[in-house]
Amino acid sequence: MAGNSCIEFVRQLVSAPMNASDPAISADVVADVFKDCFLSTEATLLVGGAVEPFFEPGSPAQIHFREDFVRSALHEVAHWCVAGARRRRLPDYGYWYAPDGRTGAQQAAFFSVEARPQAIESIFCDACGVDFSPSVDNVEGNVSELMLKSFSTRIAQWRAHFHDRGLPVRAALFCQYLNRACVQREGRRVTHRP
C-alpha cells in the first residue's frame, strides 16, 4: 500500500464514529486473516488456545494467543508488527515478562513498552468492530488511577502518531485485511471511535 493511502486509511479508522457493539469477527477468523496475509511472505501463523501468549520462532513461526480471545489475538499481532527482524528470531521476541502481581517499577516498565503496541491493537479493533480498552495485564497489582490515565494518554498519543504518519507496514496490511474480512462478513465497513 502506498504511504499516503495507508495514512488516509488509518485516518479514516481513527476518525470514524463508533458503530459496532458486538465483535464483527471471531478469533478463528482473525487467525485465518493473519494466515492469508502473512503465511506466504513472513512464514508466520497465529494460533489460539494458549494458556499464556507467546511468540515461537521457527518455520513457520507461531504467535500463540490466549484461548479463543479476539483481543488477545489482535494484541499479539500488534506486538509482532512492531518487532523487528532480529527480535522475531527470538522466543517471545527476547523480552521479559513479569506475571500478575508486578511491583510498581515492573508495572511502569510494562507501561513504557506497551503503549505503542496497544495503540496498534486499538486500530486493529477499529478495523474489525471490536471494543478496545487499555490492558494493564496486572489484575492483582496495585495500578493507580493516575498510572492508568497516563498510560491511556500515551496510547492516544501513539494513535495520533499513526493517524499522522501511518502504521508500520505489516500493521497497515493486516488492518486492511481485517477490515476487508469484516466487510465480507457484515456487508459494511466496521469502524470505531478515535
Side by side, the strands of the main sheet go 1-3-2
Write the element-wise H/E pattern from the N-terminal end onward: HHEEEHHHH
What is the first-to-last residue Cα distance? Answer: 22 Å
Helix content: 40-55%
- Whole-number radius of gyration? 16 Å
Q: List the uncertain runs.
A: 1-6, 13-21, 190-194
Shape field: globular
Plain-language structure description:
The chain has 194 residues and is mainly alpha-helical. It has one domain. It contains 6 helices and 3 strands, in the order ααβββαααα. It has a 3-stranded mixed sheet with strand order 1-3-2. Strand 2 and strand 3 form a beta hairpin. The N terminus and C terminus are likely disordered.
In short:
With 194 residues, this protein is mainly alpha-helical. Helix content is 55%, strand content 8%. The protein has helices at 3-15, 27-42, 70-82, 104-128, 145-165, 169-186, and strands spanning 44-50, 54-56, 61-66.
